[in-house]
Design brief:
The chain is mainly α and 179 residues long. It contains 7 helices and no strands. Helix 2 crosses helix 3.
Length: 179
């Protein structure tokens, strides 16, 4: 296969991957950012851009840095992009206490808003750990590898973050779940 054809085939394969994964990446980014849809879109675009640059690594079995699981790799890139953004964020930026009204077709809109609002109040690394462990259903070890922390630190962060969420949500959660 010629170089031009191979490149075209890789591009088609990447476009198919990006098309199928962008919704899941956006949902994860939305929760990571505490409901900031614009930042979530930016993170997804940056993630897909980085994935495009590394896409050729899928088909190189001789490389030690080969990507065996593109979906998992994309999630890892997304979380790392989020954490990098949080480290670089200007000290003049402040999260908003008021979330914009968003048309949601799901019956649990109030519960979702309460959870997103509570997640937004967690520190960035705690938020990343909670989203990876409970939204993405990742293991402690996978989460630790993604956030570059030890398994014990991830377990501790999860415990503390969940306790903080319980305090933040308080009796609101019980009311929202009953509805």
């Amino acid at each position: 296969m010629g170089t031009a054809r191979r490149r075209a085939a890789l591009e088609e394969e990447f476009v198919a991957f990006a098309t199928t994964r962008k919704g899941q990446l956006y949902r994860s980014a939305y929760f990571l950012t505490g409901g900031d849809g614009h930042l979530a879109e930016d993170l997804v675009q940056e993630t897909l851009g980085r994935m495009y640059g590394q896409w050729h690594r899928l088909h190189r079995p001789e490389w030690a840095g080969r990507i065996d699981n593109p979906a998992g790799y994309a999630q890892t890139v997304l979380v790392r992009e989020y954490l990098t953004h949080q480290r670089k964020r200007s000290s003049s930026e402040r999260p908003s206490q008021v979330l914009p009204e968003v048309a949601v077709r799901e019956p649990d809109a109030a519960l979702r808003q309460a959870l997103v609002g509570a997640l937004a109040q967690l520190p960035p690394r705690d938020r990343a750990v909670v989203v990876l462990r409970y939204w993405e259903d990742r293991s402690v070890e996978e989460t630790a590898a993604i956030v570059k922390d030890s398994s014990a630190a991830v377990r501790t962060r999860c415990t503390r973050a969940l306790a903080r969420l319980r305090v933040l949500l308080g009796s609101d959660l019980e009311e929202l779940v009953r509805q």
